[in-house]
Write a structure and sequence with these properties.
The protein is about 35% helix and about 20% strand. It contains 15 helices and 12 strands. Strand 9, helix 13 and strand 10 (about 315-320) form a beta-alpha-beta unit. Helix 1 (about 5-20) packs parallel to helix 6 and helix 10 crosses helix 15. It is of the alpha/beta class. Bound molecules: S-adenosylmethionine.
Length: about 375
């Protein structure tokens, strides 16, 4: 079974268990809990006040890793889209915040989840909500039609995250907000975890590195990209989660201590010629220090690739005169300088790493 169908099957089963009144675990029968549900009692993500009046089945079916509708600072009248809306908890919470004139779409690919969400909607009598069937890689909505895209623990499950980010950008109105809770990595995890389909459905194996998440958002055109950790998972949490995936996986729990987190990921679509547009924004100045050797050429090519993928209108300048290179006081070439600051010397950072440096320098 391919990964998408594995995900669909697991969440279909979770929805059915919620209908039957069991607590739905993140990942179906083999994995009793997903990473975000480990030790959940001590890490509740919704405050009691938040969920008052929300159908009990929607709360019980909650499989998220954060509270995006609270973090997104939704305003009355806004239109919101929840990617991978599951049993609908974040849709209902958002609907309350944007009422009376605002509307919330919930999008999910799993029939059983949609049935559960629609049942919850009926029970709650909420009218400013619509659940849509579809894939987050191909959002069934027109361009520029929503103010805020939220999502809770779903992007990590996609096998084509670049496409999801492009789709989110497309449907957002100019100056629209991307406000997503997700599982994010802050360090390399063993290949044995990466290749486990159960752990993909459990929100670990498909998670992106923090730096990659930022640069992919910037690459599709988002500005003001930020990732804030909301919970870091330690070896004990990971061990509990992995125990259901087999002994081999459990043995690496210590190696992933502190490398998996729930995080709030935010970004903004540029306003059309407005405040957060790239128009008029200072572009980073990029210089390569080196006398034209093969390593300098590779670094230049990597920097040009990073600039191109971020869509920046800036030249990569080559500094080849020894006297000019010496001004930067580097001990080894090639050197990479962004906005006058030496970022690396004597090594060749990858295009991904350079993209990250450019994002941090404000060039997204
Ligand atoms: C971990 S659950 C989170 C559900 C909900 N956001 C919550 O917080 O309770 C993931 C949900 O995303 C849906 N999903 C996963 N991948 C998807 C995709 N590519 N397109 C649409 N829905 C997807 C699943 O069907 C499931 O309902």
């Amino acid at each position: 079974m391919d990964l998408k169908n594995t995900v669909k099957k697991k969440y279909g089963e979770a929805a059915l268990r919620a209908v039957e009144g069991d607590n739905p675990c993140c990942c179906g029968s083999k994995l009793p809990t997903g990473i975000a549900q480990t030790n959940r009692m001590s890490h509740e993500i919704y405050q009691e006040g938040d969920t008052a009046g929300i159908p009990a089945a929607a709360i019980a079916a909650s499989l998220g890793c954060g509270n995006p509708s609270a973090l997104a600072q939704l305003r009355s009248g806004e239109t919101v889209l929840d990617l991978g809306s599951g049993g609908g908890i974040d849709v209902f919470l958002s609907a309350r915040r944007v009422a009376p004139s605002g509307k919330v779409y919930g999008l999910d690919m799993t029939d059983e989840m949609l049935a559960l969400a629609r049942r919850n909607q009926q029970e709650a009598g909420v009218e400013n909500v619509e659940f849509l069937k579809g894939e987050i890689e191909n959002i069934p909505l027109p361009d520029n039609c929503v103010d805020v895209v939220i999502s809770n623990c779903v992007l990590n499950l996609s096998t084509d995250k670049k496409r999801v980010l492009r789709e989110a950008f497309r449907v957002l109105r100019p100056a629209g907000r991307f406000a997503v809770s997700d599982v994010v990595l802050c360090g390399e995890i063993p290949a044995t975890l990466r290749s486990n389909p159960e752990l993909w459905a459990g929100c670990v194996a498909g998670a992106m590195q923090e730096s990659e998440y930022k640069s992919e958002l910037a690459a599709v055109g988002f500005l003001d990209v930020a990732i804030e950790p909301t919970r870091v998972f330690h070896a004990a949490d990971v061990r509990e989660f992995l125990s259901a995936a087999g002994a081999e996986a459990v043995s690496v729990a210590d190696q992933v201590d502190g490398k998996i987190m729930s995080a709030f990921v935010r970004a903004a679509k540029p306003a059309a010629g407005g405040a957060n547009s790239t128009k008029g924004k200072a572009m980073p100045k990029i210089q390569i220090l080196g006398t034209g050797c093969a390593r300098c050429k590779t670094l230049t090519a990597n920097a040009e690739k990073a600039v191109q993928e971020l869509g920046l209108q800036t030249e990569v300048e080559k500094v080849t005169e020894i006297k000019d290179i010496m001004k930067f006081q580097i001990l080894m070439t090639p050197g990479l300088v962004i906005d006058g600051k030496v970022k690396t010397a004597g090594r060749i950072p990858s295009p991904e790493e350079i993209k990250q440096m450019l994002v941090e320098a404000g060039g997204n």
